[in-house]
Amino acid sequence: MDFDLVVRNGTVVTASDIWESCDIGVKDGTIVAVGPRLPAALGAQEIDAEGAFITPGGVDAHVHLSQFYEATVGVDIDRSIITNGIVPNPENFVGDTFDTGTRSAIAGGTTTIITFASQMKKDESIIAVIEDYHKLAKDQSYCDYAFHVIITNPTPQIVEDEFPRMVDEYGITSVKLYMTYKPLKLLDYQILDVMYSARKLGITTLVHAENADVIDWMTQHLEQKLMTHPYHHGTSRPPIVEAEATNRVICLAELMDTPILLVHISGGPATKHIRDAQTRLLPIYGETCPQYMFLLADSMRKGDFEGAKCICSPPIREDKSDQDAIWAGVKNGTFTIVSSDHAPRKFNHPNGKQRGLKDGNLPYGKFRLVPNGLPGVETRVPLLFSGGVLSGRISPQKFVEVTSTNPAKLYGLKKKGSIAPGFDADLVIWYSQTKFQPFKLTNEMLHHAVDYTPFEGIEFKNWPRYTIIRGKVVFSHGEVVGEMKYGQYIRREQSLLPGPRDIWLSEWRP
Predict the structure, then answer these.
(1) Residues 357, 461: contact at Cβ < 8 Å?
(2) Comparing C-alpha atoms, which of 192, 174, 234 is closest to residue 410?
(3) How many CA atoms lie within 13 A of 74 on its CB side?
């Protein structure tokens, strides 16, 4: 047969099956055949998987890149910075741009990311924001990419006129809402406005669910007691803060009969609210992240201020029962996807985590001023494979489901997320276990632009040997070999997962 690439002798894993001694035939970037002993014409590239696992390329649906504001600590920014594709003041930027972030992604087996175009409170249009993020990403990505849009000012013009344009002209079929962070949060009335429009257009709504008033009250009273060490970031946001907001937004979604995804769920109580909604057949989806599966709040106790490296919201939880609930939610299907929430802030930079030291109570600083977020786009897939599959906590099929197949289905990436004819040839070939030497991770091994990893010292029992995007090897044996301009923007369709049920709580109808 006329293949460009044949991957031979692999153990192919999909969300439902495992096929041993299997080959994959690729033509023009697309999988065209899967089966044993595929014949190939002379000149076709061949890769021997040596019996190792082959999984679909990772789809990381929660990645923050090239966001030039700091909303998580209340910095007063109310209008977007229009960059025209030029990174402003790069020496003062503390995160990842599209080039460094996507380079890191492919080195960890992720072949598609969905990142965020972010509207600010006084932006009167989301179209200019979308256009600017396109300019920032153009020719700067090693992997394929798509956008969510963060909505902070849902005016009638935006939800009625610009949402349809967002879907039709740009192929963006998801928006993200915040219930916390002063520069970003929406009132329940505004959330209903967005849900009302999203339902009509087949848009999936992502929600960061935490009770902002409780957080503000707790933070103020902790500061009065000088309880400002990084560890007390978690004290200000106990699991009930996440659980209350989760339950509230599920109620709003049920009222509007619209699908939502609860992002980066961290604790058992919120997980239970999602599970209860799902058992009532509501289209409620859940996302969690590796930091809630592999870390505990002790990571924020390190040193006087080093724990600031692990400040994120919702916080990493103290009680192992919360961690156990997250793992159970992955296994039983409560969590549809596992994403990285890659939101890196350099530690040793005055605009990064060191912001927390600028307003006294040294040497501990104030957790309120520490930018929230962790790096994780490169470690997500290997952590779940090594610490999930190889430890026996989840099956290979479940791993594929939550890291690749379900993100693609949830967000309308119809050619991503599986190994079958017609799908993009996005593949991860792992090392044969008999030939892999386990190692403990250091930040120097990673490819992001950040000066630390929260997963420092964790032992990895495997790592991607090859990352392949649309039939092209972009990462091989520890080296990035792809080109920065290779990544393509992906227009998305509506979610392939269940949506509105046309079941109502009153006589009102949209």
Answers:
(1) no
(2) 174
(3) 10
Distance CA 203, CA 229 (A): 40
pLDDT at 89: 84
d(CA 393, CA 97): 34
Tens-digit pLDDT profile for residues 423-462: 999 999 999 999 999 999 999 999 999 999 999 999 999 9
How far is 360 from 381, CA to CA, in rounded Å?
A: 39
d(CA 102, CA 474): 11
Helix, strand, coil shares of the chain, percent, nearest 5, are 35, 20, 45
How far CA 93 is from CA of 99, 274, 306, 347, in Å, comes to 14, 36, 20, 12
40 in helix, strand or coil?
coil
Q: Which helix (H) or strand (E) holds 24?
A: strand 18-27
Q: Specify the length of the chain in residues.
A: 510
How far apart, in whole angstroms, are the C-alpha atoms of residue 492 and residue 169?
Answer: 11
Task: Report the alpha-carbon distance of residue 35 to residue 55 in Å, rounded.
Answer: 15
Secondary structure class of 477 (helix, strand, coil):
coil
Q: Give 125: exposed, middle or buried? Use CB within 10 Å, 0-12, 13-18, 19+.
A: middle
- In 3D, which of 31, 22, 17 has the Cα closest to residue 1? 31
- Report yes or no: 81 and 66 within 8 Å, Cβ to Cβ: no
Can you say whether the dihedral through the CA atoms of 367, 372, 376, 381 is positive or negative? positive
Q: Find tokens 């040839």 and name the residue.
A: 425
Give the Cβ contact number of residue 409 at 10 Å: 21
pLDDT in tens, 30-70: 999 999 999 988 889 999 999 999 999 999 999 999 988 77
Residue 256, φ and ψ in degrees, nearest 5: -90, -5
- Rounded CA separation 256/197 (Å): 10
Spatial CB neighbours of 472, under 8 Å, sequence gap ≥ 6: 29, 482, 486
Whether the pLDDT of residue 76 is over 90: the answer is no
Question: What's the 3-state SS for 248-297?
Answer: HHHHHHHHHCCCEEECCCCCHHHHHHHHHHHHCCCCEEEEECHHHHHCCH
Q: Tokens 């106790």, residue? A: 301
